[in-house]
Amino acid sequence: MPTANKSTLRLNSCLLLASVLAVSARPQDASTMLKNTLTLANFTRLVDDLVKFDLADSVSKAGPKTIFAPSNQAFREMMMHNRPMTNNTEIMPKLLRRSFVVNRRIMPDDITNEMVIDTISGDQLRFNIYNTTMTVNGVIMTKEPLVVNNDVVVYRINSVILSSFMKGQNLMVMLEANKDRFSMLIRCIQDTGLTETLTKDGPFTLFAPTNEAFRSLPTEVLARLMASPEEMKRVLTGHVTKGTYFLGALDSKDSGTDSVLPTLDGGSNKIMISGRTIKVDGAPVITSADNIMADNGVIHAISRVLMPN
């Protein structure tokens, strides 16, 4: 081979090697790094959905972040119970973005009971710490992160975060948003002067009787309560528990929550759990409905008015 050709070949080989080295040395973009981190931690379904709904870039912006990552099993259960939602291009991106908190690495020691933080979806997350269980918006989370590095902290959660809230969405606002079920309760709250308490104070857990619950009262009892704001107020304050208690914690076998929760009337609510059945003072909680979250607590629909002993 002529000397000139050998020189050209060596030059081309050097240029090719330099190009390969340059590509291999190029730092991965933030999106790729995040997807790799989540994949290595076995959050493959979350990664698939971030790609599917074109969210990988928007949730991977540079800087510290904390992720509350649904497990693969959480996505499988969502597929079984609500397959249409998993393909909804409006709902699912919003649900997924609730799992991402940017500009902040949240370590276990940073988390306090009733702490509220913002997410990139514009929604807020509330943390609650029970004896052996920790929840974020009512979803059970690991107490220790599965991933910790300079930029990312990842906790596993056992469900996609379906319920959330924004600033200003207090208990009364959320009752109004669901007034097709709670119109009678709203009227009673207004008539008894409890509106301000449920608007400004808290956090509270409101065990909210549905319209059907009020109608199921004996006619004479309902008439007496409606005619006596003071008696109705005593009844209603027995439905309000101090602190935030979510169904995800109440029906957890190892939740460690007390079976008796203090109420505003100075009494208490007895929580009884049998399998997936949750009762408050004997009244079933309507577990088919999600936690209705508010910025000062949570609402659980119940099918019976709790009458004081």
From TrEMBL:
<dbReference type="GO" id="GO:0050839">
    <property type="term" value="F:cell adhesion molecule binding"/>
</dbReference>
<dbReference type="GO" id="GO:0030198">
    <property type="term" value="P:extracellular matrix organization"/>
</dbReference>
<feature type="signal peptide">
    <location>
        <begin position="1"/>
        <end position="25"/>
    </location>
</feature>
<feature type="domain" description="FAS1">
    <location>
        <begin position="169"/>
        <end position="306"/>
    </location>
</feature>
<dbReference type="Pfam" id="PF02469">
    <property type="entry name" value="Fasciclin"/>
</dbReference>
<keyword id="KW-0732">Signal</keyword>
<feature type="domain" description="FAS1">
    <location>
        <begin position="27"/>
        <end position="161"/>
    </location>
</feature>
<dbReference type="GO" id="GO:0031012">
    <property type="term" value="C:extracellular matrix"/>
</dbReference>
<dbReference type="InterPro" id="IPR000782">
    <property type="entry name" value="FAS1_domain"/>
</dbReference>
<dbReference type="InterPro" id="IPR050904">
    <property type="entry name" value="Adhesion/Biosynth-related"/>
</dbReference>
<dbReference type="InterPro" id="IPR036378">
    <property type="entry name" value="FAS1_dom_sf"/>
</dbReference>
<protein>
    <recommendedName>
        <fullName>FAS1 domain-containing protein</fullName>
    </recommendedName>
</protein>
<dbReference type="GO" id="GO:0005615">
    <property type="term" value="C:extracellular space"/>
</dbReference>
<dbReference type="GO" id="GO:0007155">
    <property type="term" value="P:cell adhesion"/>
</dbReference>
